[in-house]
Amino acid sequence: MANLFSWERLWNIIPQLSPYLLITFQIVIIGLLFGTLLGILVAILLLNKIPILHQLLSVYISFMRGTSMLIQMMVIYYGLPLLLNNFGIDINGLDKLVFVEITFILNYGAFLGEEFRAAILAVPKEQTEAGYSIGLTWSQTFFRIILPQALLTALPAYGAEAVSCFHLTSIAFTLGVVDFLGRANTLGSASGHLLETYLYVAFVYIVISMLLRLGFYLLEKKFSFGREGVNN
Amino acid sequence: MIEIKNVKKSFGKHEVLKDVSLKVDTGDVVVILGPSGSGKTTLLRCINFLERADEGTLTIEDQTADLHTASSKEKLQIRKRTAFVFQNYGLFQNKTAIQNITEGLITARKIPKAEAIAKAEEVLDWVGMSDKRDYYPSKLSGGQQQRIGIARAVALDPDVILFDEPTSALDPELVGEILGVIKKVAKKGITMIVVTHEMSFAQEVASKVVFMDGGVVVESGTPRDVFYYPKEERTKKFLERIIPQDQYFI
Ligand SMILES: Nc1ncnc2c1ncn2[C@@H]1O[C@H](COP(=O)(O)OP(=O)(O)O)[C@@H](O)[C@H]1O
Ligand SMILES: [Mg+2]
Fold this sequence. Notes:
Oligomer: heterodimer
Number of domains of chain A: 1
Distance between the termini of chain B: 33 Å
Structural class of chain B: alpha/beta
Strand content of chain A: under 5%
Largest sheet of chain A: none
Shape of chain B: globular
Helix content of chain B: 40-55%
Order of helices and strands of chain A: HHHHHHHHH
Structural class of chain A: mainly alpha
Largest interface: A-B, 20 and 29 residues
Shape of chain A: flat
Radius of gyration of chain A: 21 Å
Helix content of chain A: over 70%
Strand content of chain B: 15-25%
Mean pLDDT of chain B: 94
Low-confidence stretches of chain A: none
Largest sheet of chain B: 6 strands, mixed
Mean pLDDT of chain A: 89
Bound molecules: adenosine-5'-diphosphate, magnesium ion
Low-confidence stretches of chain B: none
């Protein structure tokens, strides 16, 4: 029994593993931040049904939803330099982490774009008309009236996406980018102390997901516009 | 002066407005009556470009716009000269009572924030809603929401306010007080076009009553003319249905 688990080994693992959390955070934060902006753009473009662009977006979204993130990352890692090469842009020296981040941004842009599109459609059209009636332009109405209401509707689904994002970052390992989970895998198998390693990993993920849930709960409360339990 | 000329509008094959013209003098209150589906809402929406008419022109004081071909700039200019009070209030759900009023002042009309807030507070007080200043619409009753809706329109200081059945979504016991607020707006001398079924309101406040049916103006005149001496058979039939007989000849 004593061989299977020891507190001392657990303490030793913490400093070896923890720095890699930064990589994980970097992927998640950049992925979600720019993924959100891309998602809003995708939602606007989807709703405006611009010919050709609309078909291209459909292909993009089908690809992002229909394939695993690992495949997407491979396509981007090997495909993007070739594509950009055609335009005379050389990105071969780029840090691999950038490709991971691009993958996350594009993936979340597609998922959140669909999410936001539905949430925007759920805002009653009278809200838009009321905006026009007081002399607001389309963009003023959209960004000041419609989008805040849509984001509130999308918030719970959004929280779930954020939590799942943390679990997906380990795919970066395939490109040789070592994040928290990736480091845990190597450390665990190299030392043979799998139990301590994964106990610590589990603990960190539980804390993160609880903090995220708390964060989104507070966010929802703050921006509920007086409605209680809108999303419950 | 507001003048609407030869407005036509179809939805697919359904001709909803068939050549409607209407003139409203400054400070006048025009009440539009008519059975449901006669095109009253569509007419107001065309004036505010919430609906694009197939034909017709709109003149507000010195500005004339083609209701079919107006550019987005003209559209915006006209919208800044008009205000709309909706049947279902149409308050911005993500804005408090006062923000609902300041939004059009600050964002659309570029009035300095402090000035806009002062103006909004004054109008809030005027509709008796000062104590609900920082409430979100979801926390207000229908009557309270409509007071804010009216305050929002009045604060914009438009050339005309368009009211589309402003009391028909309210509980019956609240109708009277909201009509009272609308009467106050009329007393301010603001030009108004009001679609309503409230006959006593029309009688008391309207400078002109317009009866619409089937997408045309059937008859118009003073409340007295239209209510007591209707010329058209269709007007008589409508009034018989809507005014209780014992009130008819008072
Ligand atoms: N967006 C629309 N699409 C199709 N038909 C419409 C639309 N808006 C109104 N209509 C039709 O136009 C007619 C007039 O409607 P409306 O102007 O709302 O009448 P009212 O306000 O007098 O009751 C109705 O038959 C209605 O069904
Ligand atoms: Mg109507």
